Amino acid sequence: MPGVSTPAQLRITGGAPHSEPEPGILARLSRVHPATATLIALLIIGILQGADFVTTQYALSMGSQEGNPFMAAIVADPLLLLNAKVFVVLVAAATGLHALKHKAHRIGIAGLAVVIGFYCLVIGNNTLAIAGNLGWW
Fold this sequence. Notes:
6 helices
């Protein structure tokens, strides 16, 4: 049949069946040193805390209200909110370092990933509130 390559032809020409697949992102991430992965996760958490602070303050200045009744008193005072954000970063750092010390880095990274995911949702919610206040949503 014209246009159909045999396995031998593919090996000679370097076709797909002979070439090695590129490792996926999870395979590449599994080779990162645990201390490096923990540091990267902590940096991301720090950046997300800053983004949460800024988007929360901006949304509140536009007339939005805090949806979490437990956080309403903290969010009302920007200095108190900033202290809460620093506290979250410090707790995350202590948890990540504790996990590294006790050779439980996979659990530590998983916990930090949950925190990262949670704050991505929080920032997304703040962004939607801001978009709603601007009439975009």
